[in-house]
Design goal:
alpha+beta, 5-stranded mixed β-sheet, elongated
Length: about 350
């Protein structure tokens, strides 16, 4: 189901409340939203909504791609909304993954903006006779993300993209986006003027605690893994645009092939942690599955080289430290752990 009209209108209203000086530049957008039909459908005329991802690394650089269809112009990842995109944010995340190979789990929402656009740009598009498209207008919603430290290498879609370039804020191709980035915090963390002091996003991780006869299922991370290579860890992953239990079921199947009903899981421990001072805080949720179907299989050998059952009282070395703390907490009936926070 595509994004609802009310969803789009809410994002526009919030954006213009924050940036009232852009009402004139975006005067055509409310008209597009008031027209009959779906404003996110690419056939909507005289203009329709598109979505892009502003991917920022820790060096204050923004990812740009050279698209074959634009003659090699440097643009940020983005494109049209599809019927399966529940929100405009989801559309931006999908476009980023399709064009660059960066999964949603490696893109962290920026403080303050959260799921709202950093920038809305209006661009005139020339006629496309080959596609039977007349001249029209794109209302492009740009969502900002920080690139996680454990993000995979880029895997460009060769049929559409020829190259990837990281540009500093003052060289970003879009003038409207460049202005907003130039006015952001110098450390690369974009914070609007009305953000509460200290407000930062927390990354949410989900973890499967699977136990039988006092033994816990753990996987040995591939030695070349970007995170915890050579260590033992429970099945886990980052929440995307989904509920935590849905993420748990998806990650469990992707990693182990086990089939779990969300109704058969319960939250048994939470770890609130900071790995390093410059990392975003993380909320690590551990869910126990009461029932499951299947036996563990190595479905992602590039990430995990073995699944094994270990005694909850005698975990292997090395075990990911926060996972060890959580398993000990579950075993002793403690529901919550804090790690890495200064006192």
């Amino acid at each position: 189901m595509p994004p609802t009209l009310s969803h789009v209108r809410t994002l526009v209203a919030s954006y213009l409340n924050r940036l009232p000086g852009e009402r004139d530049a975006l005067a055509g957008l409310p008209a597009a939203l008031d027209a009959d039909g779906d404003p996110t459908d690419r056939s909507a005329l005289p203009g329709h909504v598109t979505c892009s991802a502003v991917v920022i690394d820790r060096n204050r650089q923004v990812l740009h791609l050279r698209h074959r269809a634009t003659g090699g112009l440097l643009l940020i990842p983005g494109g049209h909304v599809e019927a399966d995109d529940a929100t405009l944010l989801a559309a931006a995340l999908r476009q980023a993954e399709e064009e660059t190979g960066i999964p949603a789990s490696a893109l962290v929402l920026t403080p303050g903006f959260r799921d709202g656009p950093l920038d809305i740009d209006v661009r005139d598009v020339a006629p496309g006779p080959a596609k039977g498209e007349p001249a029209h207008r794109h209302h492009d919603f740009r969502f900002a993300f920080h690139l996680a430290d454990d993000a995979p290498e880029l895997a460009l879609r060769d049929e559409e993209v020829t190259d990837a370039v990281w540009l500093p804020f003052d060289e970003v191709s879009s003038p409207t986006l460049r202005d907003k980035l130039a006015a952001s915090a110098r450390d690369g963390v974009i914070v609007p003027v009305n953000a509460p002091p200290g407000t930062v996003p927390n990354v949410v991780g989900v973890h499967l605690y699977l136990e039988q006869e006092g033994r816990v299922l753990m996987g040995l991370r591939h030695p070349d893994s970007a995170y915890a290579g050579g260590s033992w860890h429970v099945p886990a992953g980052h929440c995307e645009a989904e509920a935590a239990t849905v993420c748990l079921v998806r990650e469990a199947y992707e990693e182990t092939g086990l089939v779990i009903d969300p109704a058969d899981v319960e939250l048994v421990h939470t770890v609130h942690m900071v790995d390093r001072p410059d990392d975003p805080p993380r909320v690590q949720l551990f869910f126990r599955a009461r029932r499951w179907e299947g036996t563990p299989k190595l479905r992602e050998p590039d990430k995990c080289v073995a699944w094994q059952w270990w005694s909850a009282k005698d975990l292997p070395e090395p075990t990911v430290p926060y996972a060890r703390e959580a398993i000990e907490g579950i075993r002793t009936g403690r529901a919550y752990t804090e790690l890495g926070w200064g006192r």
